[in-house]
Amino acid sequence: MSNLPSQARVVIIGGGAVGVSALYHLAMAGWTDAVLLEKNELTAGSTWHAAGNVPTFSSSWSIMNMQRYSASLYRELGAQVDYPMNYHVTGSIRLGHSNERLQEFKRVVGMGRYQGMDLDILSPDQIKSKYPFVETHDLIGALHDPHDGDIDPAQLTQALAKGARDLGARIFRFCAAIGARRENNEWIVSTPDGDIRCEYVVNAAGYYAREVGKWFGREVPMMVMSHQYMLFEEIPELAAWSKEAGHKLPLLRDVDSSYYLRQEKTGMNLGPYERNCKAHWLTPEDPMPEDFSFQLFPDDLERLEWYLNDAVERVPILGTAGLSRMINGPIPYTPDGNPLIGPMPGVPNAFEACVFTFGICQAGGAGKVLAEWLTEGQTEWDMWSCDPRRFTRFASDQDYCIAKGMEVYGHEYAMHFPKHAWPAGRNRKLSPIHDRIAALGAQFKSYNGWERANWYAKSGDDTSEQSTQTWNRAGPWQKRIEEECLAVRDAAGILDLPGFSRYRLQGEGARDWLLGLITGKVPKPGRIGLAYFADDKGRIVTEMSVMALEENLFFLTTAATAQWHDFAWLQKHLPKDASFTLDDVTDNLACQILSGPQSRAILAEVTDADLSKPWLTHLSCQIAGRRLQLVRVSFVGELGWELHTEMDDTATVFDAVWAAGGKHGLKPFGMEALDSLRIEKGYRAWKGDLSTDYTMLQGGLERFVDWAKPDFKGKAALAREKQQGVTKRFVTLAVEAGECDAPYMSTLWRDGQLVGETTSGNWGYRVGKSVALGMLRSDLAVPGTELEVEIFGDRFKAVVQPDRPLWDPENERLRA
């Protein structure tokens, strides 16, 4: 007879490394009334055939945090839970064939240093000293990570399981979850041995996560790849070297050729990520089986031939070894390759910890993050890179998931250059004037599926994908972006901006509710203002524009990518007996930005609206017989308006404005120019400058905090912080940069000490200098303070600027 409980606080579905880590961390946090269900034995999914590599490397700040935590946890876990584990900290070497790759490595070294990891760059001779069997004649250098290594995935999972059980959590093997339903504000998870009623449920089902998600009405954005690696027999030369050295070789990654090579006892393990990759379980002819526990796909060695030959040329002793075994198993992929950790979109008290491409190295950190989501409702690190709500409905389309998953897999080690746009899965959402701006030379990039113009090319400009393979500011786009910025400065520019996330808040009590949720004031009817939402720790959750049409009728506008995230935040705080309504109206409305000193003259030709109304006001009007809301704001810092229209009216309004603007010097501009223009004004960008990594006070946003209000979310924490002293502060820096501007999370130095980090950087074409926004130790956040900013390994002088915009510091042009 089963001893399955009828009730638990949390039920986790899936017994791989991630699900068990989540259980362990919940138990560590005191939530021991937690149950994990596994339909087979623990590790039966991707965990059992995983290679078990544990890198800390990542170009993502949050994922590096997560992987760093995992590595640290694993080093102590065996002793903590009294379970034997094979964890080899061998270090790793990532080979660099190009200057661009070395730039990427140098940036990661800086990020790692900030997180307390001593990564370093090796010369070809130093590579040879650590890995004597490698050919280095065509290499420029390498990244050395002394913390890298490999672990036995089964032992890791069992150690986490023992730790969870010892604390009181329960694991039920060979007990499949077969369904879930909502009843009386609780979840009921069904199994063949009975139902479990619980408060929270977690989908940690690995490559079965999409099937489990359907029980909740959720289409999980994922697909499944076939990943192969090859195990080789003993290599006598390697065995002799390893015996004499007393340790294994570092794990070798040739990231430009796209494979890793690891010493496996006295043999080797070669794992390619091949461009000619293969997806599985895509069609009715290739359906996902009900159970694939401890199973593999047939070998497909032909796909790996090029990679094997390349590896043999790189490490010739590999060519002397016989192939002992092929492993070919399923690995899940999201459209961007990052896992899903956090609230299940649109589903109460349901969470996801699934679709891990690198589940072993991320399992420890993922368990920590998931446990924080459940027990505290928030995480220590801003984890937007893994938040399930970063994908909206369009990303659940299976064709899209397959195209993006295969693209990510085939470019697993690719560099993510700032001007590059990945080509797979494009044109999911098109503006009504997409064809018009394409004809003007628009070079597009996807934002939450919406195609937006990044910059506008002219005849003869190099618009090839190859041209974007650089970290440098210079490129065929540079002159065009400058022209766009100067057109906005001197005449006028128009930006088509489809996909703004918009919510309609309407009804009695709406104003009072909003007032208690945001840190500042709610604008009066006819006005618009920025509103900031803080969590209980006073950290920045999000920023929205609040447009008040009536006393209790508002439109809230936020970033395109924030659509599900911000709507969930608002819904979470709605009173149960609310007399007002909140609706997502994103798909109904469009926006164009018209800015520049000639923008008023252009509008005067197409509308009889009162264009003298001041900054931060709005009014209803008509252009070409179509109704729109004309909003006197400008993210570029010039005289300007946002033109908010019904989707079907966009083209008519654009055509009228474009025709009128010709004689006034109107030009189109794109997102790259917008970013340059906004950074000169010190305007913050979401999930860069604005994130839960920082509080409102650290972010320099106290002017948006109304201390006179009796209460608002985060007020107590912010009051404590103000009394105790703010440890770091937002600053604008003028940087004497070289060929590159400061990317996100570039380190700030003062007298050889780490004193802060950048949150964004770009070239300011109006001010003629490189500009960075960042967070700096409070005592140094004084105008005139000289620092150094580390940009791709080199340090450049930076000077703290006064706390006001670099461009038009008194906002005279903006208010004109």
Report on the structure:
The chain is α+β, with helices and mostly antiparallel strands and 816 residues long. Helices cover 25% and strands 28% of the residues. It has 19 helices and 38 strands. Strands 4, 5, 6, 12, 13, 14, 15, 16 and 17 form a nine-stranded mixed β-sheet that branches. Strands 1, 2, 8, 9, 10, 11, 18 and 19 form an eight-stranded mixed β-sheet that branches. A hairpin with a 2-residue loop joins β29 and β30.
Task: Write a concise synopsis of the structure shown.
With 816 residues, the chain is of the alpha+beta class.
Whole-number radius of gyration?
A: 27 Å
> Are there runs of 5+ residues with pLDDT below 50, and where?
none
Silhouette: globular
Q: State the end-to-end distance.
A: 79 Å
Helix content: 25-40%
The helix/strand class is alpha+beta
Strand content: 25-35%
How many individual helices?
Answer: 19
Mind describing the biggest β-sheet? 9 strands, mixed
Query: Total number of β-strand segments?
Result: 38
- Summarize model confidence as the mean pLDDT: 97
